[in-house]
Design goal:
Structural class of chain A: alpha/beta
Distance between the termini of chain B: 41 Å
Largest sheet of chain B: 2 strands, antiparallel
Radius of gyration of chain A: 19 Å
Shape of chain B: globular
CATH class of the largest domain in chain A: Alpha Beta
Number of helices of chain A: 10
Oligomer: heterodimer
Distance between the termini of chain A: 23 Å
Number of strands of chain A: 10
Strand order of the largest sheet of chain A: 6-7-8-3-9-10
Number of helices of chain B: 14
Structural class of chain B: mainly alpha
């Protein structure tokens, strides 16, 4: 997919340094009482690539995601986005810095229309402040731009026909698409997708996968959590495997899936997971 | 059929306007932002005290209104600061307690110099500055079947001012609910985390909504006191629940819902009271029991309405209904 493989020559081991990392996490530790949920020594995420974060249930993937995006606080550790520390930065400010996430359980704003959902994702709207909101002249031009941008995205995600429907009336898969489209409204540098394919029918899964690949083509970095290995091997450039809160393997999809530690993690904790036949 | 005229008069009475205005404030809290403010009467009461006490101490009317708004702002900030970071239910608990605290503080003997304790502040002591502004004559003026004082107490002057203010704030609600600001608040109502993930400072927006709704509630309280008096016990828990009831009856998150709800509520109350006193003999219900009885009937009527039309009269069920 990429013209030049940025991962060429990298060691396939946990914590390996990337040529152009967008996210760097260092000794991030989160425990709930006596249970260690996340204990990541070092992780770098390559810019302009699709990185998958996989692992069995309860591996700490979602918790790690929450920590990176400011939705949860670790007990210790440092993590950086574009070289700037995100320690203590609120979730809203993380998003404003260009790192936008979606949720495992979709958070479509049900009692708002699809287009209003989209508009909410935009940045730089002065009308979101109280006093300017009273004077439409101060925000109506920007509102038009936002609406046009939203319609282009809705077109691309094939949701344009549902433009004026309440988001609550959408199907599960459509909500996933809406959430992804909404995340793109702020033109983020990186999108963090938490299980984008969970609970989506096979046809929509195909279209979701295409959209994720398109994102990369547009220059957006993608980090996504998934536990279906098939999906992961089809689209990701690099795979990071978590188990019991730590990173146990890293590498290109083919290498990672033949890794015995990964198979053990999956088979041990998640023995009913179907593994690719070529293993 | 005298009571029909009275019921119509009730439709545009100052109390109806005061409750409509307070309900518009609550609509910013609940209808737009999803905040469960269960102590709206507290905002009304603190607004009344702010207005009445500063007027008693010689403040001009504009200053008294500002004092009343500042009091409500401070109360909102104090309530929101610890609770808006928590889940919605906590705000409900804190507001209901805070409203009672305002009321008990008002009626406590230690502040009798300022608040007049449980007997409150008589209208003659603080209505002067408002009534002096009236361009109307002092005598009773009849318009059609309705006859009220021109300027005193529950007057034409108060009716005109009160409904003008209600109209202005309904306009404000309309403007804001169709603005990007209102869109963020509606997003907060639907899912805070989603709005956070889109880069909005949810806490700050909730605080703005709480302050704005509280200030509007305080102004509602001022209107109420100009038609009656400052009486702490008239702003107890039932008042908060009546405002909730009429907001839900009219339709939360709608522009005219609070106004329609207030009009219907007060008219229905009057009609029920009159009809029961005509139909039910004294031996069944004493005259003194009529008031609580009619409130009960209104309650039942509203319950029925809410069961069969949870979005209220004007509401859109897809947007906001009580049962979600």
């Amino acid at each position: 997919m990429a013209d030049k493989d940025p991962f060429k020559g990298l060691a396939h081991e946990p914590g390996v340094a990337k040529p152009d990392p967008i996210i760097v996490a260092d000794k991030v530790h989160r425990h709930f009482g006596g249970l260690t949920a996340v204990d990541v020594k070092h992780l770098e995420v390559q810019r302009h690539a699709i990185t998958a974060l996989i692992g069995p249930n309860g591996a700490g993937k979602s918790t790690f995601f929450n920590l990176l995006t400011g939705f949860d606080r670790p007990q210790s550790g440092e993590w950086f986005f574009n070289g700037k520390s995100l320690h203590g930065v609120t979730a809203a400010n993380v998003a404003r810095a260009g790192m936008v996430r979606t949720f495992q359980l979709t958070k479509a704003l049900s009692r708002m229309t699809v287009i209003e959902n989209m508009r909410l994702g935009a940045t730089g709207q002065r009308g979101e402040s109280f006093f300017p909101a009273l004077i439409p002249g101060m925000w109506s031009t920007r509102e038009k731009e936002i609406t046009e941008q939203a319609e282009v995205l809705l077109e691309r995600f094939k949701l344009i026909k549902l433009r004026d429907d309440f988001a609550g009336s959408l199907s599960g898969g459509q909500r996933k698409l809406l959430e992804m489209a909404r995340a793109l409204m702020s033109k983020p540098e990186i999108v963090m997708l938490d299980e984008p394919m969970a609970g989506v029918n096979p046809v929509l899964t195909e279209s979701l996968l295409e959209h994720i690949v398109e994102l990369k083509a547009d220059g957006v970095t993608v980090l996504f959590v998934e536990h279906d290995m098939h999906m992961v091997r089809r689209i990701s450039d690099w795979v990071v495997v978590m188990a019991q809160g730590t990173i146990i393997a890293e590498g290109p999809p083919e290498t990672v899936m033949s890794n015995t530690a990964v198979q053990d993690a999956y088979l041990g904790a998640h023995h009913d997971t179907e593994l690719p036949e070529e293993l | 059929m005298d009571f029909l005229v009275d019921a119509l008069g009730e439709a545009f009475a100052p109390a109806t306007a005061a409750f409509a205005l307070a309900a518009i404030g609550l609509n910013f809290h609940f209808g737009m932002t999803g905040l469960l403010n269960m102590g709206h009467a507290g905002f009304m009461l603190i607004g009344m005290y702010g207005y009445a006490i500063s007027t008693q101490n010689g403040a001009p009317i504009w200053l008294a209104v500002i004092v009343s708004m500042v009091c409500a702002t401070i109360l909102a900030l104090l309530l929101g600061w610890p609770t808006l970071k928590l889940r919605g239910d906590y705000l409900a608990i804190v507001t209901i307690a805070a409203a009672e605290m305002v009321r008990f503080l008002g009626r406590s003997q230690s502040l009798v110099e300022l608040t007049g304790a449980s007997s409150g502040i008589r209208g003659t002591e603080f209505k002067g500055t408002f009534e002096d502004l009236s361009p109307f004559p002092d005598e009773r003026v009849a318009v059609g079947p309705f006859e009220y004082h021109g300027s005193f107490s529950s007057s034409w002057w108060l009716r005109v001012v009160a409904w003008t203010i209600v109209a202005l704030f309904a306009l404000l609600f309309w403007r804001l609910s169709r603005s990007p600001w209102g869109r963020v608040l509606k997003g907060v109502r639907e899912d805070e985390d989603a709005v956070r993930s889109l880069g909005k400072n949810v806490y700050w927006y909730k605080m703005q909504a709480l302050v704005l709704g509280g200030v509007i509630g305080a102004l509602g309280g001022v209107l109420w006191s100009l038609g009656a008096a400052v009486q702490p016990d008239s702003m107890g828990r039932p008042t908060t629940f009546w405002i909730w009831t009429l907001l839900l009856l009219g339709g939360a998150a709608t522009i005219f819902g609070p106004i329609l709800g207030s009009v219907l509520f007060w008219c229905a109350l009057l009609v029920v009271r009159r009809v029961t006193s005509m139909v039910v003999p004294d031996t069944w219900i004493a005259q003194t029991e009529l008031e609580p009885f009619s409130l009960m009937l209104v309650g039942v009527t509203l319950m029925v309405l809410v069961v069969f039309r949870p979005q209220g009269i004007l509401g859109d069920r897809r947007e906001l209904a009580i049962n979600g």
